[in-house]
Amino acid sequence: MVGPSPAGGGPTPVLDLRAYPHLVRDDEKPRAYITARERETLLLAANGHTNRSIARAMGLTEDTVKTRMVKVRRKLRAVDRTQAVAVALALGLLSLDDVAVPPDANRGYRTTS
């Protein structure tokens, strides 16, 4: 017998989207919908806030912030909050202007000249 068994063993069949062109829509750009509160949570995370400080700033519990960050990461297909911020920046959900750079962010580093 060739292929995966009903019990779950063997290789997983790969779906070749070229065989199913009706599943692929070229006219739609990939996008993620996040709510305004999820965006606010992600924005605070992008600016270096911890779950605890995000909870205080938004008037939520720390568990609510954790749950919200999990939802945002799932929606953006990110493995951690750093990647979620990077994906949000790439998709235009956040702007680089939204991220505050600490005044001494580059102090003490040598120049590359």
| Separation, N- and C-terminal Cα atoms | 65 Å
- The number of helical elements comes to 4
Spans with pLDDT under 50 lasting ≥5 residues? none
Major sheet description: none
H-E string? HHHH
The counted number of beta strands is 0
Query: Overall mean pLDDT score?
Result: 81
Mind telling me the C-alpha Rg? 21 Å
* Content-based structural category: mainly alpha
What fraction strand? under 5%
Tell me, briefly, the overall form: globular
Helix content: 25-40%
Could you characterize what this model shows?
By secondary structure, the chain is mainly α. The chain is 40% helix and 0% strand. It starts with 35 loop residues before the first helix and ends in a 22-residue tail after the last helix. The mean pLDDT is 81.
Short description:
Helix 1 packs across helix 4 and helix 2 packs across helix 3.
Draw up the topology in text.
Layout: H1 36-46, H2 51-58, H3 62-76, H4 81-91
Helix pairs in contact: 1-3, 1-4, 2-3, 3-4
